[in-house]
Every structure is written in C-alpha cells, then in structure tokens.
Design goal:
418 residues; mainly alpha; 15 helices; 80% helix
C-alpha cells in the first residue's frame, strides 16, 4: 500500500515554478523570436514553408505521443526521470543548433523537432507534478504562480539577449550564441526541480501495460466527451481558434523581419512590449471573466485577434506594428487562460483529470499542426500578407463555432447553462 504523499514545502513549490521560468528561454529564443529568422534566412534560403512544416511535424509527433506520455505520468513513479530525459533532449538539441548554418537544413530540422518534442512532451510530466505539490483547492493558485514566473522568464531572456543582438544581422555569430544561451538558461533554472522536488512513489506498471493503457484511455476519453455535447462543441472551437493564435506566435518574428524590416534588436523590444501587455491583459480579463462569462471574454479576445490580423494585412510602418503588438498582447494574455476556465466550467468534477489530460495533452498539441503548415505553404507561394488572411479565416471560423457553446459561468456569477 502506498504511503500518502508529504505536503510540498514552499521551497519545493518554488522549484516547481522555476521550471516554467527555465523553459521560456527555449520558447522565446528558439520557437518565437531568434531561431525562426535564422532558420528562414540562413538555413532554408528564404523559404518559410520549411519552418511551418518542421513546427507542424514536431507538434504532430507530440500529439501522437501525448496519450502514451500521460499514461506513463499516471502509472509510474518515474516522472522526474522522464522529465529529465525530455528536458535533456531539448537542451542538447538546442545547443546543437549552434552548429547549423547554410547547407544543414535536414540536420537543423531534425534538431528542432527533437528539441520541440522534448519541450512539449516534458510539459506532460511537469504538469503531472501539480496534484503532488498541491491540493485541489490550490491547483489554480499554484498553476497561476507557474504562469507568472514564466512571464518573468520571458522578460529575463529578452533582457539577456538584447545587448547580444544589438546591431546583429540574422547570419552573425551573435545570433547563434543565443541558441547556447537558450540551452544553458533552460538547464540551469530547471535544475532545482530535479534536486529538491520529491516524487510520490507508487508501484510502477509494466511498460507494455501503460503503452496500451494510454491509447485505450484516449479512445475512452473521446467516447466519454461525446456524451457531453457542450464540451465537444467547445473543443472543436478551441482547436480552430487556438491553431490560429499559435500560428501567429510561430510566424510573428518572421513576418516582422521580412515584411516590415525590423532588426533583431527591434524585435526584442517588440516582444518585451507584447509580454508586458499580455501580463496586463491576463489580469484585466481575469477580473471581468466572472462578470461577463468566459465565452464572452474569449469572443472579445478573438475579435481583437481578428482586428490585429486585419491591420497586419495592410500595415506598413514599424511604429504601427509596435502599437499592434501591444493590442495583440492583451488578447494573447487572456485567450488561452480564459479557455482553460471555460473548459473547467464545462467539465463535470469527476471527469476533470480525464478531460483536462485530453484538452492539454492531445488537443492543445494537435491544434498547432494545421495552421503553421498552411501559413508556411501559402506564404512561400503567394507572400506573407495573403498568408495572413488564412489566419483571419481560422479565427472567424473559431469565433462562429464558439457561439455554439453554452454560456457557462461560475455559480453565483450570473447565467449558468448546462
């Protein structure tokens, strides 16, 4: 019989949140800002379609692995070891990107896929620690601490690379140095979790049992979700609009550099602005969500996204793009957090663990496959501005699908529909 887990100390909870601080170095430098521009201009010879294909492939692999990884996280007492393996794969592959350049396309594609699968797959084991370090009552609060510390990690990363990228061009050695910084930042600040966070031990299942159990659980979850029409409708809407939001994140740096001529230094300032407004947006919309309802708040943020995409199609000046980034940050800071709230309100309490595992581990990853692929292919053939229209189309479809979902609100906050 397993002994009950000991409550986590504040220090151990802090070590857990530091992992969010750590992995933002990878996400900011490799996925969002620096490496996409280096990949497109130096490695892929100006063809951004390769970037879309690579990101889509990595997210598809993670989505396919998701049920298996979730089953492993539930069935074994080796979450920390497996998190270390995925983190190590991400860190080593990220450092390896320093050696890429002209003529290394397939090596760069392979390294990026391994790095992103390591990053995205590792979050399954990282999230699985939450029930061990918290009670159900404190899930949201401690999870929120992780998001807040993650924002601080983004700011810290941007401030570190700002002087390095000052006056740098995409092909300079300084750009490749930031890949090493991303790897070192991730490894160093993730270390406290592995040193100080204790894992609740339980009897591990046989490997063949949790491999089969992962996909059996996915099949059962799909069957269960189909019994809840409102959740099924929400997941379809989320799949479409989240795909478009993630596409904006994956291609924003490439668009700003190629179409508007922003330098790498200017892009760092731009993303600092976006992060700041995202933090403000998440706080502001968090305050009004109970009053307006999460469906209305998501709808407002999607309208903001549509306005941003429409403006980006015609925008010409750098100054206007900075203003647009501030507006986009407000929407970014609220759309995904409010989506989580919406999912929580729609889900029966006894199904929370099962349905949220599907929402985060499978749908959250799979929803990043189609958009980047479509944008990259359209951009390569017709240009970046026409490709922006594909994002607008996805957002519009997602908005229409959203209003097929019932208007649910916390008890005592207004209208509640089952």
């Amino acid at each position: 019989m397993n002994a009950p887990p000991q409550p986590a100390t504040r220090w151990q909870i802090f070590c857990w949140t530091l992992f969010d601080f750590a992995n933002t170095g990878f996400y900011v430098i490799i996925i969002t800002l620096v490496f996409p521009i280096y990949f497109k201009n130096v490695i892929a010879g100006g063809n951004e379609a390769y970037w879309g294909r690579t990101i889509s492939a990595s997210m598809l692999i993670t989505a396919v692995l998701g049920p298996f990884l979730g089953s492993v996280a539930d069935a074994t007492s080796r979450k920390k070891m497996l998190l270390a393996i995925f983190t190590g794969a991400c860190v080593i592959s990220t450092a390896g990107l320093y050696c890429t350049g002209q003529g290394t396309l397939w090596a760069a594609v392979t390294l990026l896929i391994v790095a992103n699968v390591g990053f995205e797959g590792g979050t399954v084991f990282y999230d699985a620690f939450l029930p061990e370090i918290s009670t159900q009552k404190n899930y949201a609060r401690i999870s929120g601490y992780g998001f807040a510390v993650g924002y601080l990690g983004s700011f810290a990363t941007l401030l570190i690379i700002l002087p390095i990228l000052s006056h740098a061009n995409p092909a300079s050695d300084n750009v490749r140095v930031t890949f090493l910084i991303a790897a070192a930042f991730f490894a160093f600040f993730a270390l406290p979790l592995f040193l100080f966070l204790h894992e609740h031990r339980q009897r591990p299942s046989r490997p063949e049992s949790f491999i089969l159990a992962g996909y059996e659980r996915l099949k059962n979850t799909v069957a269960h979700i189909r019994q809840y029409n409102s959740i099924e409708r929400f997941l379809v809407a989320f799949f479409v609009y989240n795909d478009s939001i993630l596409t904006v994140i994956f291609f924003s740096g490439i668009f700003a550099e190629h179409t508007l001529g922003l330098t790498l230094e200017e892009l760092v300032y731009f993303f600092l602005l976006v992060q700041g407004s995202a933090l403000l947006g998440s706080v502001a919309f968090g305050v009004v969500t109970n009053r307006l309802g999460p469906r209305q708040v998501i709808g407002v943020t999607l309208l903001i996204w549509l306005a941003v995409v429409g403006a980006a199609y015609t925008i010409q000046s750098k100054e206007a793009f900075f203003l647009l980034g501030a507006v986009a940050g407000i929407a970014l800071g609220s759309s995904q957090s409010t989506s989580r709230t919406m999912m929580a309100l729609l889900t029966p309490f006894e199904k929370r663990a099962e349905f949220f595992g599907f929402y985060d581990g499978f749908f959250g990853k799979a929803s990043a496959v189609a958009g980047p692929l479509i944008f990259g292919e359209v951009s390569h053939r017709f240009g970046q501005r026409p490709a922006i229209l594909t994002i607008g189309g996805l957002l519009a479809v997602g908005l229409l699908l959203l209003f097929r979902v019932p208007d649910v609100r916390p008890a005592g906050a207004g209208i509640v529909e089952a």
